[in-house]
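In this section we walk through a basic example: taking a raw amino acid sequence and producing a predicted 3D structure, encoded as discrete structure tokens. The instruction is simple. Fold the sequence below.
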Amino acid sequence: VVGSGSTSSTSSSSSSSNRRNIRSGRGIISSIIRVPLAAVSKFISILSFIFNFLFRCLFLFFPLPFSSSSFSPNSNLPEIVIAESAHAAYWKAAEYFHMRLRVVKVGSDFRLHARDVEKVLNRNTAVIVASAPGYPHGVIDHVADLGRLARRHGVCLHVDACLGGFALPFLRDLGHSIPAFDFGVPGVTSMSVDTHKFGMAHKGTSVVLYRNSEIRKHQYTQITEWTGGLYISPGMAGSRPGALIATAWAAMVRVGRDGYRKTAAEVLAAAQAFAKGIEEQIPELEVVGKPDMYVVAFRLRDKKGGDGKKEDGLGHSGSGKGRKNDERNQNEKKAKDINIYQVNEELTKKGWHFNALQCPPALHFCFTAAHSTELVWDQLIPDLKAAVAAAAADPDGSKKGSVPLYGMANASPDRGLLGEFLTVYQDTMLMP
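The resulting token sequence is shown next.
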């Protein structure tokens, strides 16, 4: 359990020393060191952002013969293959461990396909990552196909079930059709599951699972020459709060399998009601893909029309033959005049907290045990309809709140510039 337990050491006096420290109050932070001249620091951060902006603009016209993100074709860096919809943690992992990321576009169903992954596999590929489900759109990647691909090429396959680990198995128990995603798939070598999400535990605990102990051993750090004694640690964290693992265990025992099944049925019903409400009552919007769980993403209705078939987010599809062309054109025109991020601003005013997505622009909502089907029909759908209407009636709303930021993020070709903006934002947030 990541973030839980205690560090292993052979020091015989550490336990009693810790008890003395707790009794005497030692180890509690007694003062906070404040950074002086905060205003000057803020000015420097802003100045740095402006300099970087001008620097990048200059090299748009006079590019350097190399890129800091480029890799030699003969590079021996281990590579992680992920979908563009994979969690941001894998970008962080690649940066921390100096690994190369191979980011693969998802298919029209917003899932990662084995045929697309195979195109980027090479001798440096260390691991393929699949999501069950993906955070942005709530859909499960094609894990079974990816498992066969991983075995054929002799690489690891990690399934990120942080979101679905405590939901999908119980939905499957209830008879719902859930795509294969776990160790039942040959080729899956590891999984991650967050107890702090639908496991009902506190934040700070998560579980990493391996197909066998031989793989798990590579996670350990063994130190035999340290003057402090023999040392072994199972993960990155050194000192970890044991209270968290106790509360995670207590939550699982208290809820139990029956409790998880009951919660799964109720939350899925709420998510399905929301998807149905969008399709039936809000013609300007459409559900993104076919949600497998509790995350429902939606965007402005696609003007292209595709092949006339469109999933309703519940596993059904229609031919679209019964729709009149003038009605479809009218809905598309309405959608064209609306900014999806402006809809988000209107929902925030009403007390709802949706997540803004990009590429394509969309919003999503993650349903939990706090949401019921009654809440969806009585409050959420009416508020979403009102938010869409308000966004359509206020053409200047796209200039307010966070709407311009996401508009810039989707339109700017220079992602590095956006990264500099985020860095300045984080620096500002951490200032005293």
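Looking at the output, two observations stand out. The chain is about 40% helix and 15% strand. The radius of gyration is 25 Å. In the next section we compare this with other chains.
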